[in-house]
Amino acid sequence: MLLHLDASARRASFSRELSRRYAETWRAAHPDAGYVYRDLAADPVPHIGEAWTELCDYVLEHQITDIARYKEAVRTPAQEQAWAVLAPLLDEVVAADVILIGTPMYNFSIPSSLKAWIDQITFPKMSLAGRSFVVTGARGGAYGPGTPREPVDHEERYLRDFFKGHFAVEDVTFVHAELVNACLDPALAHLRGAHEASLSAALEAVSR
Ligand SMILES: Cc1cc2nc3c(=O)[nH]c(=O)nc-3n(C[C@H](O)[C@H](O)[C@H](O)COP(=O)(O)O)c2cc1C
Question: Does the keyword section mention NAD (predicted)?
């Protein structure tokens, strides 16, 4: 199953266009594999609350690593409510073979809508090994290898580190459309050609 998430606050969005094309390609190649779509910007998941942290603490204290057993942590009405929010999100992740995330870079990092989703579905010592993550991103500047801004790309670095370090997922792919701000910022007009080249390469990659 392909779980497809989008996180851009814009509807006319580069990261949405890239994820949409990736999903089209994937679904054409796997017509019977199933598909779930979730728009984290239009339909945001709530931030975790205290009852969620109680579930998390229970899972850690009781060394529950089997996701199917997390429900044992639910003991109070508030925890029931927290569980009702997170369980469908978690079910989608567990059922997925590929988790596709269309996301902009916001303030050197990820949108809070995406972070809220990550917080909801993540528990201690939780493995998603065997699955793949694909991230289709868009950013105003350029953060590739050798650029002055490479060290402040806390979007790709964070997601890569988290998916590998916490979820034990080795298969993580990023495709970025860069220099998007060159379309808007007159001071970056000279970089419009570089933006076009980045976008074309990204569109080609996701269509492959
Ligand atoms: C709130 C906000 C913060 C942003 N922060 C950054 C940033 O730190 N670095 C950057 O290169 N671009 C930044 N941008 C530009 C976006 O990454 C760019 O517009 C991108 O195209 C957004 O993706 P989308 O087209 O899918 O909406 C920001 C845009 C917004 C709206």
Answer: yes
Pocket mutation for ligand 1, best pick of 107, 112, 192 (most atoms within 8 Å of C-beta)? 107
13 C-beta closer than 6 A to ligand 1: yes
Residue 107 marked as a ligand binder: yes
Architecture of the 2-207 domain: 3-Layer(aba) Sandwich (3.40)
pLDDT tens-digit series, residues 166-193: 999 999 999 999 999 999 999 999 999 9
91/85 Cα distance (integer angstroms): 11
Model's pTM, two decimal places? 0.97
Res 107: pLDDT: 98
Q: Where are the domains of the chain?
A: 2-207
